[in-house]
């Protein structure tokens, strides 16, 4: 059905409803890390009739209480008196079933392992971890626990992202041999809520992991996550280290430039199993509007996905399929799908369903380990100044 309100755009509205939710058992839920993204988790959880938030923890004193207040749930008896994830997970009176881990990147692996060892299901924010070694350790704990571990890639729930995968799987592109992906912002080093994204000790990785993981997931998920084999990577920090960078808040340039300990741009050439090459670039800051559209080239057709900042699961405009029809070179516009769905609600909903039904994680680590291996490989290759082999240990 065409959406008449979107004049000039080729669009499609999907209004399919989901299945009924069994509310006879409530999932007892905890939040670890009460910063900016935890708000989105709580808002989505409050929309789930079978989830009950029972506790939240933050290492900064008072932050968990502030978090409950700003989300309007300070009077719901939710426990907050925990100095870190450990004290909350050790509190057996909570009878926790599941947690969202919303801590900064360098505090993903440790709380995830601790929660899994306690027999609690985990929804872990993206990126999976900072290093491949950490991701492997988390997966070992996941395997030993038998619990659900899902990684927070909500763009997966977007109908347009799902359409990209359907197009790749349909065969219209033939054999896929070359992919270009990435995205970026002109002035978008994330410092609106402090410096946890730019300090080495908290973020561990910059644009490469923060938004790079989304671009990688968009294309790798579409083509079935082939194994990465080698990578030649580059990263830089020219904008972040500049006290005169115009994206920093007034008066904060000197301080932030000194604290900046990660990358603000990364690029790489990655070889994947199946003879596919992946050309990647990502920027928190650059003197350019976009580092290019995502393109997926195949022997029968190619798909162009207009560039976005690659963080919220939308495409930057109608996609285009380049192919031949009865010998004629043809371009087909793929309509944008407008689905009345909230991505965070779907992220929490699909996770809760997996916890309750014992079904696989909606965004499984068996795939995201390849995403993390590429990020890790780019960082290592950039530091070594040469191509490196990607070696993923058996888990
Ligand atoms: N999926 C998305 O759309 C999305 C968007 C933004 C951020 N994120 C991810 O979410 C994570 C958090 O981002 P943010 O913007 O909320 O950061 P933030 O710095 O605002 O919040 C992180 C919070 O975790 C707390 N914390 C750290 N270690 C802890 C521990 N061991 N136990 C308890 N609390 C701890 C910190 O004190 C802080 O309050 C990052 O990994 C980021 O990449 C995801």
Oligomer: single chain
CATH fold assignment of the largest domain: Dihydrodipicolinate Reductase, domain 2
What small-molecule ligands were found?
nicotinamide-adenine-dinucleotide
First-last Cα distance: 47 Å
Q: How would you sum up this structure, described in words?
A:
Helix 6 crosses helix 8. By secondary structure, this protein is α/β, with parallel strands linked by helices. The structure holds nicotinamide-adenine-dinucleotide.
Outline the fold blueprint.
Blueprint: E1 11-14, E2 27-32, H1 36-46, E3 51-57, H2 63-70, H3 85-90, E4 98-101, H4 109-117, E5 121-124, H5 132-145, E6 149-151, H6 159-170, E7 176-184, H7 207-210, H8 212-222, E8 228-236, H9 253-259, E9 265-272, E10 276-283, E11 294-298, E12 301-305, E13 319-325, E14 328-334, E15 336-339, H10 343-357, H11 365-384, E16 388-389
Parallel strand pairs: 1-15, 2-3, 2-4, 4-5, 5-6, 7-10
Antiparallel strand pairs: 7-11, 8-9, 8-16, 9-10, 11-12, 12-13, 13-14
Helix pairs in contact: 1-10, 4-5, 5-11, 6-8, 8-11
In brief:
The protein is built from 11 helices and 16 strands. It has 395 residues and is an alpha/beta fold. The protein is globular and about 70 Å long.
């Amino acid at each position: 059905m065409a959406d008449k309100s979107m004049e000039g755009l080729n669009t499609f509205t999907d209004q399919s409803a989901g299945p009924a939710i069994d509310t006879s058992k409530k999932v007892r839920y905890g939040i670890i890390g009460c910063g900016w993204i935890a708000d989105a988790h709580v808002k989505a959880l409050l929309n789930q009739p079978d989830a009950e938030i029972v506790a939240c923890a933050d290492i900064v004193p008072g932050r968990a209480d502030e978090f409950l207040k700003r989300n309007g749930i300070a009077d719901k008896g939710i426990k907050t008196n925990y100095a870190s994830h450990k004290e909350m997970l050790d509190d057996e009176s909570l009878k926790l079933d599941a947690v969202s881990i919303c801590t900064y990147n360098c505090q993903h692996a440790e709380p995830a392992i601790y929660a899994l060892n306690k027999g609690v299901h985990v929804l872990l924010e993206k990126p999976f971890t900072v290093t491949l070694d950490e991701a492997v350790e988390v997966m070992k704990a996941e395997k030993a626990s038998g619990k659900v571990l899902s990684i927070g890639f909500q763009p997966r729930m977007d109908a347009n992202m799902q359409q990209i995968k359907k197009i790749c799987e349909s065969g219209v592109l033939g054999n896929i041999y070359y992919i270009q992906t990435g995205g970026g912002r002109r002035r978008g080093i994330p410092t609106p809520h402090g410096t946890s994204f730019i300090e080495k000790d908290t973020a561990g990785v910059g644009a490469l992991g923060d938004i790079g993981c989304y671009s990688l997931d968009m294309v790798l998920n579409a083509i079935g996550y082939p194994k990465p084999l080698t990578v030649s990577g580059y990263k830089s920090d020219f904008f972040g280290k500049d006290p005169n960078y115009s994206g920093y808040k007034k008066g904060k340039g000197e301080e932030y430039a000194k604290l900046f300990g990660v990358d603000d741009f990364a690029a790489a050439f990655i070889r994947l199993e199946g003879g596919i090459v992946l050309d990647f670039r990502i920027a928190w800051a650059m003197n350019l509007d976009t580092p290019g559209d995502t393109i997926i080239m195949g022997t029968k057709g190619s798909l162009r996905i207009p560039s976005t900042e690659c963080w919220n699961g939308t495409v930057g405009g109608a996609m285009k399929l380049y192919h031949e029809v009865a010998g004629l070179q043809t371009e087909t516009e793929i309509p944008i799908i407008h689905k009345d769905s909230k991505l965070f609600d779907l992220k929490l909903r699909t996770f809760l369903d997996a916890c309750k039904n014992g079904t696989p994680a909606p965004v499984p680590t068996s795939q995201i380990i390849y995403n993390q291996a590429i990020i890790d490989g780019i960082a290592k290759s950039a530091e070594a100044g040469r191509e490196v082999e990607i070696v993923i240990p058996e888990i």
